[in-house]
Please model this.
Amino acid sequence: MASISARGLRIEFPLYHLAARSLKKRLLAKAAIRLKTDESNRVVVSALSELTFDISRGERVALIGTNGAGKTTLLRTLAGIYEPVAGQLEVHGEVGSLIDPAAGIDSDSTGRENIVLRGLYRGMSESQIALLEADAAEFAGLGEFLDMPTRGYSAGMQVRLSFAIATAITPQILLMDEWFLAGDADFMLKAEERLTRLVTGADILVIATHDMNVVRRWCTRVIKLEAGRIIGDGTVDEILGPAGA
Amino acid sequence: MYRPAAMQQAVLPTYHIDAENPDRRGRALADLGAGFTSWRLAWALARLDLRNRYRGSVIGPFWVTLSMAAMVLGLGLLYSQLFQMDLQSYLPHLVTSLIVWNVLAAMVADAANCLSSADGVIRQLRLPLTTHALRCVFRNALNAAHTLPLILVVFAIVGHWPGIEVLLLIPGLAVLAVNALAVSIFLGMICARFRDIGPIVTNVMQMAFFLTPVIWKPELLKENAVWLPLNPFYTMLEMVRGPLVEGGGSLLTWAAALGYSSVLLAIALVFFIRFRNRVAFWV
Model:
């Protein structure tokens, strides 16, 4: 059964290109909260610290917090991109991450080639890629432009293509950054059904967002982050107050 | 969206990481394994790189072939005069050395930024790092495929044909391929962490070009030629030049080449095991 379990998770970003001592001193002088030096005397930003939580099957979790609170970093950690410097993380289930729309898009390739490329990135077999191609091509609705290099696409077309490629998956654990909900109104109308299907089809959803409507609509649980720490974890009503209040 | 019950019961893919007990070696080997199993991805990306690089060009990668041919012709005429050697015996040496050296140098230069140039993908998608290194190797192999046949053309023109020792080319190229992967992993990582290594590598390669018998023949060193196997680049070059031009190459250079390769491989492996999980923070 899909589940995520984190114990004392800590992620630190070393600031390698800060060699100058004076700069280092200045940064650390002002009672720094998130900047510190690690054991090899490098300046590090503590991006996430002491995160402990369990997410089990059926939960739809919203990560909220101000910019820089660590929401996207946590998503990337769950996706296995950043490895923690302390703590444990256990993720059971196939993970699909929708973090950056443009990740792996090659602007010199046509839309269709990009769909195939993404299939390869995901390690799909040829028959799976053919299905992906049919599905994404149909949803993107780019018509003849599908066989044109994406370099020449309008911004809207690019969003449609990335969205179509990214959402043509059925993962058990869906990690999502909020850009996926930030399309223009027309597009969102069309995307709605597909997104709902994806979100409700996943066993676990973790979404980083600023939009409280999204939280209330889709989520059952809220984890509130501040400066890389969890400052609130509970049901939507517990954290945000009762609906309509 | 529908998943049959049988599939849900199946063992779920599990990602487990414990910072206290990182199991670095296991993860590094798993990375290599996953990278090799998904070689199709690395291959597709390498072909894409080649295509994009020559986008809009009519003859595309054959420009490399053309410029290499021009260079061999020019240098051949000039240096056969300078060294007072006849073209018949000098050209096979020059064409092999020059082309193989260019492949090596391009490989090393490319390896230096094979990870830092893939930063976008590394930070967004969980892929084996081996895939990026393999992509770099494949890309250079594809490039090499556009110049290596020139060697045969020149051989045909001057009528130089190697004997049965040409079979040694197979292990030679295989060792070079392994080295290419090791160099991609090692230089790719170290150059992602220390941005000053890239320019240093460029300078070292430039220097090595003159110190290695590429344009000049080893015989010109006379009795000092015994020291040549100390130059790793010479031994790498000899793994191709030996079988094609020099009747197989000496046992000593082969042994030295294998020795250097093992050291390189060991360093790359140790480095990969120790620092693989830091690369996402470096690029």
